[in-house]
């Protein structure tokens, strides 16, 4: 569940899992879940992890308007470094900071950035500019890998 700590984020996470498992967005449980997600999305969602999950859920389901709305929010909070793009949590606790000999982001930030990438790749009516952005996100994710090809966490 990664950074999930509330009902909205958990609902988005489960909805994504059901869509990834091949269930139709017309399946009653998923339809009801999207009703809840759409209702919740009318309020301001400031948590970056929740924004990334919501973006992926709406993009995966082909709900273009909500997908685009969340991708725009994510774009505004993205960090750009050397042509790459990623997202950071608003507040890092001292325990989230990597030792100086490891220049890797906390695992939750890798997860947030990965969900943003998935949202962009599943965006309805994706264009060349979207793929260029995706390439920059992939560059950042690759730099987070450890020498064995994995990441700092199983997340």
From TrEMBL:
PANTHER family membership: MACROGLOBULIN / COMPLEMENT (PTHR11412), OVOSTATIN (PTHR11412:SF170)
Entry protein name: OVOS protein
Domain Alpha-macroglobulin-like TED: 1-155
Biased amino acid composition, Basic and acidic residues: 78-95
Lineage, opening ranks: Eukaryota, Metazoa, Chordata, Craniata, Vertebrata
Gene label: Ovos_0
Any single Gene Ontology cellular-component annotation: extracellular space
Annotated organism of origin: Horornis vulcanius
Matching Pfam families: TED_complement (PF07678)
Region (Disordered): 78-102
Top-rank taxon: Eukaryota
């Amino acid at each position: 569940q990664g950074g999930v700590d509330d009902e909205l984020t958990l609902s988005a996470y489960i909805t994504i899992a059901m869509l990834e498992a091949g269930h139709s967005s017309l399946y009653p449980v998923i339809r009801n879940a999207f009703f809840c997600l759409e209702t919740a999305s009318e309020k301001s969602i400031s948590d970056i992890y929740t924004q990334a999950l919501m973006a992926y859920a709406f993009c995966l389901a082909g709900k273009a308007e909500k997908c685009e709305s969340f991708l725009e929010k994510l774009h505004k909070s993205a960090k750009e470094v050397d042509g790459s793009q990623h997202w950071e949590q608003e507040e890092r606790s001292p325990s989230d900071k990597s030792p100086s000999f490891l220049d890797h982001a906390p695992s939750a930030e890798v997860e947030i950035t990965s969900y943003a990438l998935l949202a962009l790749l599943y965006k309805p009516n994706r264009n060349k500019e979207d793929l260029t952005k995706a390439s920059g996100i992939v560059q950042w994710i690759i730099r987070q890998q450890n020498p064995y090809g994995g990441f700092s966490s199983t997340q």
